[in-house]
Amino acid sequence: MIDTPRNRPVALVAGPDTAVRTAITARLESSGWEISAGLADKPVTGLVHVPDLFTSDRPVRQRAVVDEFFEAVEQVRPRLRARVDGGARIVAVTCRDGLGWPDRPHIAAASGALVSATRSLALQLGQAGITVNAVAALPPEGSPLREGGDPVGTHLREPAALTPEPVTMEDIARTVGFFLDDRSGYITGQVLHCCGGASLLSSLSV
Question: Which residues contact 163 (CB under 8 A, 6 or more apart)?
Fold first, then answer.
């Protein structure tokens, strides 16, 4: 069946205007999603929360990142597609730094807090037919964090993807799309690392 404006799934992509958010929006639109600019009358199938965790030009506050996620969920919750119609999907985009990284503890703390929030919301909203998952990404190609080099005073280095190609913003967008797909409706409370295997290298083993 060809999607029409009446039956296209609707997604709300929340968060500051970043390259990662732009990539996710473009990917969803190319896959037939309608992107909601705010509160509207149509039921929402997917909410994607994209905090700015991949740039180093501003401080990241753990509480603000989590509060923004909760506020986005509460704002859109009355509009989320009902369970009888297939339910809805919520995806938070977080960072691999949640596993620990020495010179970005503020990003690591915010990333870990988002994972905890995701798992708790999955427990809270599951009976309503709403899945809640997280994508934990390696800082992608183009992120200034990729040029961070060696953390001062340690033997560590910024881990690279084990795959032949670096992780890109489009890779993050495709992983988000996986969680939003109706065929992923039995997956909730999970964290999927979009990192090309870099998450296998903890901050103590790289």
Answer: 196, 197
Question: Splitting the chain (206 residues) into consecutive groups of 10 residues, what average pLDDT does each group show?
Answer: 64 93 96 81 93 77 91 95 95 91 85 96 97 94 73 69 87 97 95 89 55
Note the helical H segments in the chain.
19-30, 62-76, 105-125, 169-180
Beta-carbon contacts of 124 under 8 Å, excluding residues fewer than 6 positions away, are: none
Tokens (6 digits) for 2: 């060809």
Question: Measured in Å, how far apart are the chain's first and last C-alpha atoms?
Answer: 48
d(CA 53, CA 25): 17
* Tokens 């990729």 belong to residue: 146
DSSP state of 152: T
* pTM, full prediction: 0.89
| Cα separation, 55 vs 173, whole angstroms | 17
